[in-house]
Protein 1
Amino acid sequence: MNSYHNKIKIENISKSFGSEKIIENISINVGEGELVSILGPSGCGKSTIFNIIAGLLTQDTGSVEINGNLSYMYQKDLLLPYKTIIDNVSLPLILRKEKKIEARKKVKEYFKVFGLEGYEEKYPKELSGGMKQRANFMRTYINSNDIMLLDEPFGALDSITKSSMQKWLLNVRKQVKSTILLITHDIEEAILLSDRIYVISNKPSSVSVEIKVDRDRVDDIEYSFKVKKDILDILNV
C-alpha cells in the first residue's frame, strides 16, 4: 500500500466468461498522481480488468472503488476523420452541452502542452500516427483529467515513434497531474513510465508481484536491466 490517497482500489476481483475463468482474486490500488502499469502477456485479461474498472463489465466477486472521474483511452485513436483536431478534442465538452465556441476556447490552451500547437485546424488524415495519439490523449484528458485509463496507447506505433511518444508522455506528466493506470505487455515501457508495476500472470490471471520503480534510476541501464530480468523470471520467459 502506498502513502497516496487511493483513486482506484480493486480488491479480490474475479471474472469468468462461461466456464473460462479470466481473472482471479486481483487486487490493485492506484494512488493520487501516480502512473501505475498492469504488465502481462497478451491475452492475460488486462483489458478485462480495465473494463471492470470503467464499469463496462461487472466482476463476479470482489469490490471496485473509484474516487474520481474516469476517462478511457483505447489503442486505436478513434478520431472522427471529418472533424478538425480541435473539434475532435472538444467533443467531450460538446457532448456535455457546452457551446462549440466555448469548448474550442477551453481546449485551445492545451495544444501547446500536448505538443500540438499549430495543428488545431488540421484533419486526422494530415497527422502522423504519433500526432494522432497525442490528440487522442488530449481528448481523453479533456474528457477527464482526474483518472485516465490508457489501454496500450502506443502499441500500434512503430518502435521509433513509440520511443518518442513514451518520452513525450513523461514530459506531459510534469505539466498535468492526472492519475494514470496503463496496461502494457512491453516490459521496458512499464519500467520507463511507471511509479509501480503490477505483473500479471497468464489466465486465469492473478497478481504475481508488485514492483516499485525507483524513478531516480530508470535511466540507469544496469538498474533497468535488473528490473527487466526480475520480471522475465517472474513470467518464466
Note: Residues 129-143 form the longest helix (15 residues).
Protein 2
Amino acid sequence: MNGKEILLSTAYLAPVEYYTKLYAYDTVWVEGCDHYGKQTYRNRCVIATADGPLALTLPTEKGAEDKTLTRDVRISDHGNWRHVHWNAFVAAYRHSPFFDYYADEFHRFFERRYTFLTEFNEALCHWVCEQIDLQPDLRPTTAFEAAPCDKDDFRERIHPKKDFHTADPDFAPCPYYQVFDAKNGFLPNLSIVDLLFNMGPESLLVLRDSVASTPAGPTGTSYSYNS
C-alpha cells in the first residue's frame, strides 16, 4: 500500500465517478467540516428513467445561519420526499436485473428517519459497498483544510455542474447495461444505484474498468493499486 489519500464531499447515493475513488484510493476522507453548499451531490442523486436522467433532491432544514457545517445539516421531512424518491427508484429500476434482489434492504433506508444528512449518506454508502464487495477505508474529517497538501482534493471536482471529462481525466466510464439504453443510449456517471441495480455483483468490475489511469499522488508521484 502506498498511502494514497483522497478528500471527498459527503454524497447522497453518489455517482459512479465517486465510487471509482473509493476503489482506487487507500484512504478516503469524507468532508463534514466545510460550509454546506446547495446544488451538489451532497443531497442529490441522478437516476435513469424512461424519459432520461432524473435528479432526486433530498430536502434539508435551513440552518440558523448560512454558514452551517455540513456535518450539522439536518434532513427535512418536506414534500414527503422519502415516498417520492422510493417511487422514483421503483419506476426506474423495477425491470432491472437486480432491483428485486436489493429492494427490501434498500427500502429500509426510506422507512427510517435519519436526523443528519451525513449520517444518512454514510449509511447508504456503507450498504452499497457491502453489496458490491468494495472495502474502502472511509474516515470523517475532523477539521477543515482549505488546501490539503497530502490528499487529492475532489470535494468540488465531483459536481453535477462540472464535466467529468475535464474535471477528472482519471475517470473513463465503462458502459454497462441500463434498462432504458435502447431509448436513451448509455448514460454515464449516474448514481451508484443505477450500476448496482443493473449489474449487481459485477458492479465492482465496472468500477475497476472505469479508472482510466493510476491516480497521481499529491506530489505528482504515480502510485499503483490492486485491481
Note: Residues 33 and 144 are 5 Å apart (CA to CA).
